[in-house]
Design goal:
It is a single chain. By secondary structure, the protein is of the alpha/beta class. It has one domain: Neutral Protease, domain 2, CATH 1.10.390. Helix content is 56%, strand content 10%. Strands 1, 2, 3, 4 and 5 form a five-stranded mixed β-sheet that branches. A two-stranded antiparallel ribbon has the order 6-7. Strand 4 and strand 5 form a beta hairpin. Helix 4 crosses helix 6. The longest helix has 24 residues. It starts with a helix and ends with a helix.
Length: 259
């Protein structure tokens, strides 16, 4: 539904009559059972037709990541998918044990986990394809359950904040005012930093709750990295940010969650 709606808005903005007709037809084609997915799927990218325009936009990203890798998004071999599906379920079980409320958010907001092979894009979600989370498979040196634990919390947090942002601007700084972000090399608008801090505060919270439940030392090491990033970014928001009442309340909640 969200993909078709975005396609309609995009076609209207370009005054493309044929694309408008196609987008309206795709919305009309959805029956009463097609508006919302039941349950949750964990699959390789490209398994469903609605992903095609999303993958085209993700693959068009022209900027390399911080390791210099360009965006490559490819389907997973079938033999790899089953292993990742099991590890996603392990990560969800750890989220449940660490904080049932966070697990409830994942259940509410995430309907499709689409896993790819490639480079450049680690994870993505958007109002343009709301309810879907696209994740690159972890590199071989990564702890795989920790990887999915972190990125499911990360992308669910973006979805949560996107919902809130539809009802309130949150940040009053202009979009062309750029500052250093804790998660990106390039300067970002204050709203981008706000998103990063919302995600990081929840990750700090979740890692603290998960640490007593796991034996792998890498969890504690990575938890410290997350906390360091959070503390760098929260200083920027407190120094330069201008917020609505809801935005300020959210900022306060980040502080209470991560301190």
């Amino acid at each position: 539904m969200f993909v078709a709606h975005y396609a309609l808005l995009d076609a209207i903005s370009r005054s493309d009559v044929e694309e408008v007709r196609a987008a309206v037809a795709s919305l009309e084609a959805l029956d009463a059972h097609g508006w919302y997915a039941q349950g949750r799927t964990v699959d390789t990218v490209g398994a469903t037709s609605w992903e095609e325009p999303v993958l085209a936009r993700l693959r068009a990203h022209p900027v390399p990541d911080r390791f210099g890798r360009m965006t490559v998004i490819e389907p997973l071999p079938e033999e790899e998918l089953a292993s990742y599906q099991a590890e996603v379920e392990q990560a969800l079980a750890l989220i449940e044990e660490a904080d049932p409320q966070m697990r409830a958010e994942v259940e509410e907001l995430v309907r499709h986990v689409c896993i790819s092979r490639g480079s450049g894009v680690t994870g993505a979600t958007s109002l343009q394809f709301f309810g879907a989370v696209f994740l690159r498979e972890p590199y071989p040196e990564y702890h795989r359950v920790m990887y999915f634990f972190e990125h499911l919390v990360h992308e669910t947090s973006h979805l949560k904040l996107n919902v809130i942002h539809t009802a309130d601007p949150l940040v009053l700084n202009p979009a062309d005012e750029l500052h250093q972000s804790p998660l990106r090399r390039d300067p970002r608008p204050v709203m981008g930093i706000f998103h990063a801090q919302f995600v990081l505060s929840r990750l700090v919270h979740m890692y603290r709750r998960a640490l007593p439940l796991v034996e792998a030392p890498i969890f504690a090491e990575h938890a410290k990295t997350i906390e360091d990033k959070y503390r760098r970014g929260i200083g920027t928001l407190n120094e330069v940010g201008r917020f609505t009442e809801t935005g300020r309340a959210l900022l306060d909640s980040m502080t209470s969650m991560a301190e």
